[in-house]
Structure formats: C-alpha cells, structure tokens
Model the fold of this input.
Amino acid sequence: MIGFVFLSLPISQAPGSEATYFDHFFHSVSLVSVTGLVIHPVSTTYSTFGQVVTLFLMQVGGLGLMTLVASIVTAFGRKMALRNRLAVLEGINRDDSTDFRTFLKNIIRYVVVIEGVGFFLLSFRFVPDYGWGKGLFTALYLSVSGFTNGGFDNLGTNSLTAYVHDPLVNMVLSALIILGGIGFHVWFDVASISRKWHKHSGKKTFRYFFRNLSLHSRLAIIVSLLLIVSGTLLFLLVEYNNPDTIGPFSFGQKLLASFFQTVTMRTAGLTTIRFTEVYPFTVFSFILSMFIGGSPGSTAGGLKTTTFAMVVLLIYNELRGQKNVHIWNHTIPDQLVRSALVIFIIFLATFLGGTGILSILNPEVDFIVLMFEVISAITTVGMSANLTSSLEMTSHIALMILMFVGRIGPITLAESLARKDRETTNLTYKAGKIIIG
Done:
C-alpha cells in the first residue's frame, strides 16, 4: 500500500505515462513480491523518482520485510520478543536464534557487498552507453534486480536483448541471480568452510571442502548446478537452429544465451532473447524450471530446490522398497519428507487452480501461454509471453493474488488460514485397507 501511494504521486510519473491507479497497485504488488510482471514498462511509466521507489520496493521484497524490520530493531538496541525472532528465523530458514544480531548484520553486509560489486562491474558497460547519471543508475537498478531475483529493468520493452552477446552483462547478472537464489544459509556455510579450508594444513582439495559443507548446502548447490547445466544443454539443443532465437548466433553466442536464459528463467525474469519466439517444448521446459525455482531462505521463489529433491528422493526410495529416505549417509526425518510432499502438493494445486481460473477468464488465449503466465506469477519469476498488459482487471487481480501467495508461500498461507480454535492431537485408529494403483 505504501508503494502504491508513492508510485501514484505526480512526481513519480514519467511524461506521457498512461498508467492508472490500479496499474500502480499491480506494480507495487509485483515489486514487493519481486515478481517482475508489469502492465506498463518501468522506463516509460515512472520518472527517476518513481524508479527509485521501485528500486526500494524491490530491495525490501527481495530481502524480506521481516528481515529488514528485525535488522532495524536490533540496530537500535531493542530486544525482539522470542516469538518475533522465531518468525524471522523461519523466514530465512535458520535453525536457532543464537547470535541473532550478528546473523542479521551479516545478511545486510553480504547483500551490500554483492550488490555493490555487481553495480561496480555493470557500470563499466552502462556508463559508456548512457552517460554517468543514467549509466550508474541503470547499473545499480539491474544489480539490485538481479540479486533480488526481481526481474525488473529500466531499459524499456526490449529488456536486455541489446546485450545478448555481451559477456560482462550476462555473466555478472547470472552471478547475481545465482547468489541471490542460493540462500543465506549457503552463503554463510561456504564462507565458514572457506576460512577453515584456508587454515587447513593438509592437502586442500575440493572433496575436503565439499564434504565439510552442511547437508543442506551440498544438496542446494548440487541441485542448482544440475538444473543450470541440464537446462543450458536442453535449451541449446532444442533452440540450436531456431531462426527467431539463437539460430543465427555463433556457437559461443548460442552457449552464452542458453546459459543466461536458463539461469534467469528459474528465478529472475530478465531476458536477452525474444523468448516468445521459442519452440513450444522450450516453453514447457521453462514452466518446469520455474516450478522448481531457487533455494530456501533466498530471494528466489518457486517450490525450492531442496523441497523438489526431497520429493524425488522419496519416490526413488519408495521404488527401491526402502522405508527411509537416505542421502549421503544421512537419513532424512520422516516429518521433513512429509512436509516437503505437502508443500509440493499445495504448490501444484495452487498452480493448477490459478491456471484454471485464468483459462475461464481468458478462453481465447492458448492454454500453455496461460500456464506460463500463472507459473511466472506464483514462482515470482515475472516472465510474460506479452500477455500481462492485454489482460482485463479481473485477470490482473488473480495474478496479484498468485504473486502474493507465491511470495509468502502456499504452505504459509494455508497454515495462516487454518482454524486455530481447537487443539489437534495425534490419534491412532484401527488399521484401514484401501486398494491403490
């Protein structure tokens, strides 16, 4: 609501802006949920002041409001109640509340450093292109957008298509997106092990480094790498000869475009090609990658990499007839696997329900395009097949709800809406037999 008020001010409007109050509200929801869906382009809708407002909203949404509030409260020396500390810890996927103040300070410090380095490197490209003022602001805007996985840009309707062959822009933004989507826990774990690895007197091998990481970090890194590598190769193979996407490029240019599109399509929403021209199978693969998304405790949306891994491991162990779920000589607690399965089902049901609603409201639109729009909203990726701006208000309201639900999490929303007026106990009745399969 605060973002809506500021974006609606006359000082926030660019000359010739056609955005309505409802459009500003839609943009505010998209910014705070770091989705990236827009009815009108940021560059032609908002003035410099308005773009600064969008930058602030995107940063708040990426870090999480609870994390920022907790950081401000602790900075002023006030103690947070245990209930509030636990809420913040749940939001950033931290197990305990020890050294809470230091943990929050480290989050802010890492964010500033990572976005600062991204801003510095991107300025080498955008300052020569746009001059000092606009160039520096564009570098800052894209650095924040990349790290928060926001998917917004202030370059116009063509996004980053002019930089499809630029290694600096592609690799810096890819690094920002990956770091933002891997999660706070993994950052601190890798930093801690790096310090131990540096002090280690024995042989310094990658095996030693990897095995000392926590189980969560190892799984998040492995799944993310597998998704990036497999997605890049799949995009490269399918689109290799597509004349409307990467067909005319050299092999190196094709590989760069495939890598960037795979990285950004999972969580961020920036694009360097006209992805509306890709083959239908590629759109389908985009939907699957967006569904999985980034890692827990990160700026990314989606089901989350480790949740997806838990479901896959559960299926694998069930097919083997193994009662427990094992990975790297660890047994995963049943409650954790059960929670992952419930999250998967609720997330899938929300996706299917949203697609059904949009298909009723827009029967003339191709179903796969509607699926793409819905999964983009609920996973806060923010990619659109040129559909968002052409939808009616009812469809926009549905998308806003999906963006909001996708950011706070379907399982969190379901739990918050559940009845709290009676206690539940674990009951056991006579065993029942039902034929399945």
